[in-house]
Write a structure and sequence with these properties.
alpha/beta; Alpha/beta knot; five-stranded parallel β-sheet; 5 helices
């Protein structure tokens, strides 16, 4: 299985980079991880809606260029479908049984995600009503992918 993570911006905090590296290592027996970082647009904290949409469009165009055409696209967004770890593992397993072996997860910037990206998604997935820093979301996503793989393989998950 191939897992691509397209994320806007770089992970700056060392503790997050170390956690990401740990889960990428844990995932080696289950899948190949490929992370693509697209440039985040600089914006003033008080950017008005028009400015934000223009920034999101620029980031979105970079994401669209990075997408693989035949990959199953999962966009992470607060308004997306909700799943438990078990139900998402079941969904992933069913997709794999249907022959899907290439998955792309898309994480937007601190301003969100360009609406056109959401329209290209095969699944819009919400992890919570909470807002998470987009850099931290990468670590949370990798942990969940690892958990899904353990559930699918019926292996114990050690916390």
């Amino acid at each position: 299985m191939n897992v691509h993570i397209i994320a806007v911006g770089k992970v700056k905090e060392r503790y997050l980079r170390e956690g990401i590296k740990e889960y990428e290592k844990r995932l080696l027996p289950y899948c190949k991880i490929n992370t693509i970082e697209v440039m985040e647009e600089e914006a003033p904290a008080q950017a008005i809606a028009i400015e934000r949409e223009a920034l999101l469009k620029k980031e979105g165009e970079r994401i669209l260029k990075a997408l693989k055409p035949h990959s199953y696209k999962i966009v992470l967004a607060v308004e997306g479908e909700r799943h438990t770890s078990e139900s998402m593992a079941s969904k992933m397993e069913k997709l794999m049984l249907m022959g899907i072996s290439d998955f792309t997860f898309i994480i937007g910037s601190s301003f969100g995600l360009y609406s056109e990206i959401k329209k290209t998604a095969d699944l819009v997935l919400s992890f919570s009503d909470f807002t998470f820093p987009h850099q931290m979301m990468r670590l949370i996503l990798l942990e969940q992918i690892y958990r899904w793989m353990k559930i699918i393989k019926k292996e114990p998950y050690h916390r």
